[in-house]
Amino acid sequence: MYNFARSLLFRLDPETSHGLALGALDTLHRVGGVQRVYGEPVSDPVELMGLRFSNRVGLAAGLDKNADHLDALGALGFGFVEVGTVTPKAQPGNPKPRLFRLAGHEAIINRFGFNNKGVEHLVAQVKKRHYRGVLGINIGKNLTTSVENALDDYLLCLEAVHSVADYIAVNISSPNTPGLRTLQFGEQLDALLGPIRSRSQALDSALGRKVPLLVKIAPDMSEEEVALVAGSIARNALDGVIATNTTIARDAVKSDPQSEEAGGLSGKPVFEASNRVIRLLRAQLPTLPIIGVGGIDSGEAAAAKIAAGADLVQLYSGLIYQGPGLVKACAEALKQP
């Protein structure tokens, strides 16, 4: 069924088909058809970061930037859903076209640039949700905010989403916001994570519950750079890390005519790069919760992420190529005996 739908959607502009697919999923959900088509969610409870996940498979940030489709996506059987990246103010993102399929490599290049409706809209949508699984909210900075003032945007978003999130992810690794990735290293990372951690703890105390704080990092790092990031994560007592975001590398897709499009590459070609970072992080931070994301297109690939050192996994590009049935296939592959 999905292969037929995909053949039609792939005839359209990628961003147009993305919107149509989500609209169709919303309609199917409203008539109670999602679980009839894709089955009951896999139950495989796991406790992590003080949260109870119904299974180990989540939706990565980026697919539902504004939490406009949260209930329908949650009905696909995810153990957790991450929405965003959201910024303090609404912004249109980069000019179109900004989304490209590299179908021969089961990959996607995007240069969206944090297009979203702003944090107030996202919070309003989250407050209306019926989905009761774990909800992560991914936060970032506005394009017009300088890197030097990035902390202000992160704190604004943190304060806005804290009361409605189950966990919060700090996105410092998108390649589509100029200068953002410079925040991943050394003193700049400490200068960002320290105040965010401090404010998060104050908000936790005021709310009377802990909202775990994670950071999302890039795959394009050397072993030494991963060690620097790990050190900062440990010093600032973060609750977890999401590894990894999209890559700027193109070695694996050079044969594709669209390989030189600017933006972040996701999908199958990122699989090994993200696994490498996960292994390095696990060696540096033996007990830190790690969410593994990048190139998962099967239950076997999800299991390989866990074997590399991840505790949970997230899907995105694999859903585009394999369809929603991938959620159940991965959750079944990771189910504990």
UniProtKB/TrEMBL annotation:
PROSITE patterns: DHODEHASE_1 (PS00911), DHODEHASE_2 (PS00912). Catalyzes the conversion of dihydroorotate to orotate with quinone as electron acceptor. The gene is pyrD. GO terms for biological process: 'de novo' pyrimidine nucleobase biosynthetic process; 'de novo' UMP biosynthetic process. Monomer. GO terms for molecular function: dihydroorotate dehydrogenase (quinone) activity. Binds 1 FMN per subunit. The active site is at 174 (nucleophile). This is Dihydroorotate dehydrogenase (quinone). Substrate binds at residues 65, 110-114, 171, 176, 245-246.
